[in-house]
Structures are given as structure tokens and as C-alpha cells.
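Data card: per-record layout.
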Amino acid sequence: MGKSGYSTARLHNYTSANRSGVPSSGSVHGQREYLLILDGRALDRECLASALVDHELGMGVAALSSIDEWRVKKGSAPPLAAILFNLGGRKVTDHGIADEIRHISSEFKSIPVVILADTEDLVQILTALECGARGYIPTSVGIDVCVEAINLAAAGGIFVPASSVLSMRHLMDSGSRDRQPLTGIFTLRQAEVAQALRRGKANKIIAYELNLRESTVKVHIRNIMKKLKATNRTEVAYKVNDLLAEGTPAEEWTGHNTARLG
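The structure for this 262-residue chain is written out next.
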């Protein structure tokens, strides 16, 4: 009982037998703000909460299994400074996760939601931010970085791992180089659709990724085919790939390659 009692005292009763997980707003801690950890795995959330308290997070810590549990107790709970949603091995793109992040971010508009997850894949990070998260912490970082990230979000900033920033810059640079030969003949949106056709993507996927209606994608494809004098999307893909490979100025390329493909 010795060690259990220690943890209970240090973490303000969130591991107590009644499993309240939330300190009372009328307690001796007054109106001190708290970090709310959401994690369905009891051992993981309790260990994380203990580590954050030990590393002087600068705010109280409450740990619960779900946001629904918080809703039941929020009437008697202290104010929140931030919410840490621990996905563990799950991904933001897994079924239902993105919607849950959106709902929490929408409900707690003034309180930053930070995601903690095992993966630091760029797609997962960007999806989390698009859903309203104010930070993304991979479990590969140390506890000190985790503390700084939470405090940054609570102060109004957004934390993302450095590796994702470098990946994003690389993608932007390569994307800019890829589009450059296309923008002489296409609009920017047509260039994006042409790139997607080059990669063999279906209209529905292109519409989803570019946030367009499928009917709009079809219009862009028709205009691209006219400009390239192509009769089908396979020919479009071939010509676009050839254009990018050669780096030929777009104005010179259409007539040259039409004759070659004729």
C-alpha cells in the first residue's frame, strides 16, 4: 500500500479507489488548471501522469479513460489547461479516431488538444492538425520534450516533431520542382490533377485529396487532355511523365510529343 498511497497523494487522487480521476474544484488546490490525459489503458495513463508530475509539468494532472468520463465529472472538476489524447499504437487515420479528435477539439474550443502517438508519420501529423489538434507528440521523444510540448500548446503554440518539419520541407521542395514544367501550360490546379493522373489515381481519390468535387476533377481532366492533345488518361499520364523527365518547356513540348506519340 506504501507505493500506491504515494502515487495517490502525488497525483491528487486520480488513481483512488473511487476512480474519479478528477480532483474536486473545491479542494485545497483551488482553481489550479489541469492537464487532462485521455487513455483507455489504465496502466499507461497512470504511468504517464506520474512521469509528468515528477518532471514538474507546471499544472495539475487528471487521467481518465475517455472524454465521456470527463463529461460526467466536469461539473465538479477544475479548469483545464490542455488535453493530451494518447493514441498509443493507433493512428489518426484509423476508423473513428479523426472524428473523435474533431469532436473533442470542437467541444473544448479554448482548450488545446495534443495528440500523443507511437508513429511520427507526416500524414498522421497533418491529419491530426487538420482535425483541430494543437500539437502532435511522438512517443519517441523524451519526457522533457513532452512537458515542453504540452506547455507550448497551453500557451497558444503548436508542437510538431522536427522530423516532420524536415519531411514537409522536402515534400514542398520536390513538389515545386515537379510542378514547374507543368505550370507553363496548365493552371496550378490542373497541374495538381495532371500529377495525380500520372500516378494512376482514380477520380474519387483525386477529388478527396484536392478537396474538389468529382465533377470538377472531370472538367480539369478534359481540359488537360485538350491541352496535351491526348485521347485518354493513360496517354495523359505518359505525356506528363515524359514532360517531367525531359524538363522540356511546356510551350515547346505539346507539338513535339504529339508527333512522336501520333
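Known properties of this structure: The first strand starts at residue 34 and ends at 38. Residues 1-20, 248-262 have pLDDT under 50 and may be disordered.

See the next section for split statistics.
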